Queue: 2 jobs
Job 1
Amino acid sequence: MFDSVLSKGSIGSVEIRNRFVMPAMGSGHSTLDGNIGEETLCYYEARAKGGFGLIISEYCAIDPHGLGALNELRIYDDQYIPGFVKLVERVHKHGAKIFLQLHHGGQWSDPKISDYPCVSASPLVWHIRDQLVHELTTQEVYDMIGRFCDAAVRAKKAGADGVELHGGHGYLIPQFMSARINKRTDEFGGDICARSLFPRLIIRGIKERCGQDFAVCMRISGDETVPGGMKINEMCAMLKLIEKEGLDAVNVSCGLPSAYKDTGRSIGGFRAPLGFNANLAERVKRSVHMAVIAVGRLHDPALCDAVIEDGQADFVALGRGSLADPEFPNKTAEGRTDEICPCTGCFSKCLTGPDENGVSPGASCAFNPFTGHEFEKVITPAEKARTIVVAGAGVGGLEAAWIMAKRGHKVIVLEKEDRAGGQTYIASIPPCRQRFAVAIKHYVATCRRYGVDIRYNTEATAESILKLNPEAVIVATGAAPVMPEYENDGIAVVQAVDVILGKVVPGHNCLIIGGGIVGLATADFIIPNMRQATIVEALPDVGEDPFTKTQYSDLLADPHVKVMTDTRVIKLTTDGAVCETPDGIMTLSGYDMVIVAGGFSPVNTLADELEGKVPEIHVIGDARKVRRIADAVEEAAWLAVDI
Ligand SMILES: Cc1cc2nc3c(=O)[nH]c(=O)nc-3n(C[C@H](O)[C@H](O)[C@H](O)COP(=O)(O)O)c2cc1C
């Protein structure tokens, strides 16, 4: 199985053990002065050990004025070489190869960090930071080419197998390539040949100074996805020219930077289909002879294999897939695919982004809290193996269960339903959210691997727990939806979770109370079935956070969905509701059902009932406090590594 993706490949003269690539991801794990510490080393080492053939480092600044975040890695000075030497050694130790990604943010640099105006191919207003951009003079462009080459020389000195030029996502290199930005009239502006001169001279310079054998890859956006941006045909023409300079590989991404909470297309969220970029890689592959890397939700082993087997690309890069599971390649090779922790595209912990001070808290994963914490959170054998009962097979309970079992404890999970997952199962049902079900499957398979005894159709009561004589109990009984008490003249009122679970047939024109993720997902669930919905939200905005809202932008633009923010329901009528709005009291009518998506409250009576009857009780997840899945999973993990 999966012979194509597991077969050896090569980029230039670099031989790679399989076709799995970890692409560049600004991890935010370096120190604030851009140095590589143990946290960063352990993070990369885990992915090399987990079987990735090629690791491409996160972006490394080639110029102090091109930094996008304070804890971006830096390669603009020789003082940074020793850190990279350690990084290369850690990765090589496990048989993986490593390229360092060379980056200059150009227009997207952060002038607050560098205390220097942003630079670009042409003078534009930097809209987000309200700044004018300095247009590089022709001489400054040649100097910049020199800085990219100097950085490549440092990468080579550090022992890296190659470099990747960050020529995608709208940073400095594509600011030269894209007619959207480049308005120059010197040799670096004009037609395709001239706009590609900047990367061509960088590659020529690197090959001259580092040798033809030193691999050079370039990341591109095959489609910049904005009006006037580069499209794939123009990009392919450019790549044909660039390849003549000796480029060894092209890594085909798409879109522009994940600017300020808008993830755009470069990092597709849960509504982007699996493999959404692979067709761009395939188009590039028809135009060039060098190795082509595909990327973009290639998070399923069968999909990875098909992309290689069908010749769409030579390598597959798994970004968030590698954050969710550093062992993705090894588990694929060992036929343990059901144990792969999937990326759900939820953005809860990976895309943390720099805050207003330019600092990122560090990339992790909702379903794999160990990501980014490999250094401090290590699963070690328990000092004394104990019998531990977990009440509830939600993802928090199961996260705790497999870790404790791996540590040697005897773990029994009691679950009143006939399946695992709890609220996460409900979250998996609306459109585009099936990956949450994959996450549940991964938990069940991982629990099975470590011998957890999951007992379905078994309610965790004080009595059923005490019968098992546990030495510790973990209460992970989750939360239940809240039903607000409205005065109601007669309209049908149901819970969103009951609609999603298929227990209730939704009305044809529904009033959804609550515009958080549950409200939006419920609207998304009912609209395709010839329904209409009005979402009423008391807060000034829907979607809970900007990432989630961005994911649902198509839903929010759907004519069958209306949204009313700053609107509070006062009472329900026979066909709608009386609401308080910024414009005064308003009656909404013409509805045949009210769907409440108004939050959850903890379910936890067990802790009190068991108090004094078992040696140790821990209440975790929503049973303790309702919050995001990611936070519940993390809490469970940190308890389990210590108990
Ligand atoms: C936290 C995070 C940081 C990223 N930083 C970079 C980066 O430094 N350089 C880059 O070329 N792409 C970066 N990307 C984009 C990824 O390399 C990749 O193209 C994208 O995540 C899509 O792949 P995926 O669907 O497998 O996650 C980043 C993505 C994430 C999630």
Note: The CA atoms of residues 70 and 358 lie 5 Å apart.
Job 2
Amino acid sequence: MKKPNGHEIIQLFEKFSPKSLAMEGDKIGLQIGRLNQKVKRVMIALDVLENVIDEAIEKDVQLIIAHHPPIFRPLKNIITDTVQGRMIEKLIKHDIAVYAAHTNLDVAKGGVNDLLADSLGLKEVEVLVPTFETGLKKLVVFVPETHADELRRVLGDVGAGYIGNYSHCSFSTSGTGRFMPGENTNPYIGSAGKIEAVDEVRIETIVPDKLLKKVISAMIKAHPYEEVAYDVYPLENKGEVLGLGRVGKIDEMTLGEFAEKVKTALDVNHVRVVGDLNTKVTKAAVLGGDGNKYWQHAKFKGADVYVTGDIYYHTAHDAMMEGLNMIDPGHNVEKIMKKGLTNILLKLCDEAGYEVEIFPSEINTDPFQFK
Ligand SMILES: [Zn+2]
């Protein structure tokens, strides 16, 4: 087992939740402290409040990964007898780094919105507000027939050839490859200065941009030739759609029953509901955090009910008049990321052979209570 530093942990984390998925202007990444020290304990938090920092100090944490960035507006000064100044002072004195993953964690596959959709039992889940489409490339490689099966397997295993739920997709044609090895070469087939003709296969497959480097290096490693002949073509096809919120089918029930389900699934005592509690609902949209400005997306996608936090009085009126039911369980339901992210990061660190403890913060940061 390897004792990782902060950079190594964050590199793993960003494979799951890359910074490139964040909305423009979002404040993400390392906010306070440093990553170039060994990390024994990581704490996952929704909000970084002073009592959360005290918890981190008490539990000997070196790195906090938080959903809500503690520094959102630019600081003009750091005065240590204000709460914010004192928080920064405590973090630096105790050498605790804070890394924020905000909208990139909302958008990420398996991130906050997927966790919420799963817990509410959404099926046939789609993205509610598309913000990002992955680009695709066509990769063509020429290989001797004897090695074609092995190369197709390697390409598929590293993630090339995904079309919908099908993996290892490729197309092959046979032909003749010709080449003349130059001086100072060490050819797998043929000899220097002599034109050679070999039965070769042209394998073509599709690769998401983000995997291209990895796929090419695996391909070169698995290929028998000293110099691998391959082409990369840009494609107009769009890859996977990523974005904020999720929408999907639910078992038919009344709005009142669904509100109860939301309370149980998201662990809240109260929800605010807009709409007739007796209407039937079969399709639900969910967006963690403040989803006011996206209610029309929920309506457009055919959702009967939209679950999001911080619903304003006037948004509720607008949605009500358009016949869209709404449930507001509060912004704090994003606390689901504490356990969710802990499990994901534990798995990634385990696969990488990292010896590190990762746990969710136990502090309840919901500022609201109901009397
Ligand atoms: Zn939020």
Note: Residues 68, 289, 331, 334 surround zinc ion (CB under 6 Å).
